[in-house]
Design goal:
Layout lengths: L1 H19 L3 H15 L5 H5 L4 H19 L2 H11 L7 H14 L4 H19 L3 H16 L5 H14 L2 H36 L16 H26 L4 H6 L4 H14 L5 H7 L3 H19 L2 H12 L5 H15 L2 H9 L3 H6 L5 H14 L7 H8 L4 H31 L1
Length: 432
């Protein structure tokens, strides 16, 4: 009975979100409280333990830090400078693709990257004379690759979820690295195919070169300081991670062992505030993803209630008993991808499916890192769908209604192709 109530609560949360834009987390936490305390007999204090502080803290600190570069215009100018280095139309999608990956590397989540880059990318298509589908794929495939980087916003959330479940930071890092590499391998392949096909069409149409793009403005003094600060903090994070991962023993290792991505980001934010590099009130309001944090918290509490009711054991038994081992990776990819068609990867799909992995791994020869990677790549693969947040945002940027309707079906088809490629790739990874 409790499982039926939890399933109904989840469906209700999704319905209210789609129909009335009510945050998933609000409905989820209210349902979790009612079901957990008054049906399962849980204490409110136990529910509070499911709030993922280890995930929320680094997400807030990272977005605060890199929000400085967004608020004072540094990031947009850097992107424009990067794109302006080469004005050949067939290279524009590649430049956009690399920009989106790079923006993920410096700590932005896929949704933020898409919101920034989608209008820029679509505004360049008319001047460049290139296929809109190519630049759409550049944004929608580049953003998750960069965001899934272990120290980016998405990668930090994924590692945090895994570490919360297993209390194993090494496994969290290994799974995060595997997910990042696997997403990169599949998404880069699909983007290369789409870009090559689009380039061949442009050549047959004798597409013109880009000659109407405005020159990027030079960085101001504050923006140069922002770039220096970002490079410094990113360098410290990367160096400390390398020392910790490889257990390098020397004087620096003692310092790196105390380095924490969340606190380093907050240290950088404090420096930026002292140097008055941006309006911190605006950064806090606009760039910290409070909606995502509320969603993650609410869904985590509801999933914790579901675990108390036996959901994980039930799903694990179903997967272990009915799916051949060789098809297990593909099945996980497919389940994650299908769920991601209708719900958020980071706030719903990954927190729901990751708790299954330790139990599944007990009866499988496939490593936990690969199984976690199946969920990561599957939930990211259908981000191309026009029904997803990123896909809908990009589609809405197309002003021509005829082109928009055509692109809806193309993106839907590509999301299915991406999911199939991901499933095939992870099947091979499972065998190897």
């Amino acid at each position: 009975m409790s499982m039926i109530l939890i399933a109904a609560a989840f469906v209700l949360a999704v319905f209210l979100n789609k129909q009335y834009r009510i945050n998933l987390g609000l409905t989820a936490v209210a349902s979790a409280y009612l079901i957990g305390c008054f049906v399962l007999g849980m204490k409110p204090g136990v529910l509070k333990e499911y709030i993922p502080i280890k995930i929320i803290f680094p997400v807030v600190s990272i977005t605060l830090f890199y929000g400085t570069a967004l608020e004072n215009g540094t990031l947009i100018k850097v992107v424009n400078h990067f794109i302006g280095k080469n004005r050949k139309n067939h290279l524009l999608p590649v430049m956009l693709f690399l920009c989106c990956i790079g923006m993920g590397f410096v700590g932005l989540d896929a949704g933020t990257i898409t919101m920034i880059m989608a209008p820029i990318a679509l505004s360049l298509t008319n001047a460049a004379g290139i296929q809109p589908l190519a630049v759409m794929c550049a944004v929608l495939l580049g953003a998750p690759i960069g965001s899934n980087y272990m120290f980016a916003a998405g990668g930090t959330i994924i590692r945090g979820i895994i570490e919360e479940l297993t209390s194993d930071s090494a496994l969290g890092m290994k799974a995060g690295l595997s997910g990042f590499i696997d997403c990169g391998a599949v998404f880069i392949t699909l983007f290369a195919i789409v870009a090559a096909v689009s380039a061949s069409k442009e050549k047959t149409q004798d597409a013109k070169r880009i000659d109407r793009l405005e020159e990027a403005e030079k960085l101001t003094g504050k923006q140069k300081l922002t770039v220096f600060l970002i490079l410094t903090v990113t360098g410290l994070i990367t160096v400390s991670a390398v020392f910790n991962a490889f257990h390098i023993e020397n004087g620096i290792s003692e310092i790196s062992a105390k380095a924490d991505i969340g606190f380093l980001a907050l240290l950088g934010t404090a420096c930026a505030a002292c140097m008055n590099l941006s309006d911190m009130d605006t950064v806090i309001r606009r760039y910290v993803p409070w909606k995502i944090i509320i969603m993650i918290s609410g869904i985590s509490i509801l999933m914790g209630t579901a675990r108390e009711a036996g959901l994980i054991d039930m799903l694990s038994s179903a997967l272990n008993g009915n799916i051949p081992g060789i098809l297990l990776p593909a099945s996980l990819v497919a389940i994650a991808g299908i769920m991601s068609f209708f719900s958020s990867a980071l706030s719903v799909v990954i927190p729901t499916l990751c708790p299954l992995i330790p139990l599944i791994a007990e009866n499988s020869d496939i490593s936990q890192a690969v199984l976690y990677s199946c969920i990561i790549i599957g939930s990211s693969a259908t981000g191309l769908s026009p029904f997803s947040t990123g896909g809908a945002l990009v589609i809405s940027s197309v002003s021509d209604e005829t082109k928009r309707d055509s692109l809806v079906y193309k993106l839907l088809a590509l999301s299915v192709v991406n999911l199939m490629l991901s499933a095939a790739y992870m099947t091979v990874r499972g065998i190897l």
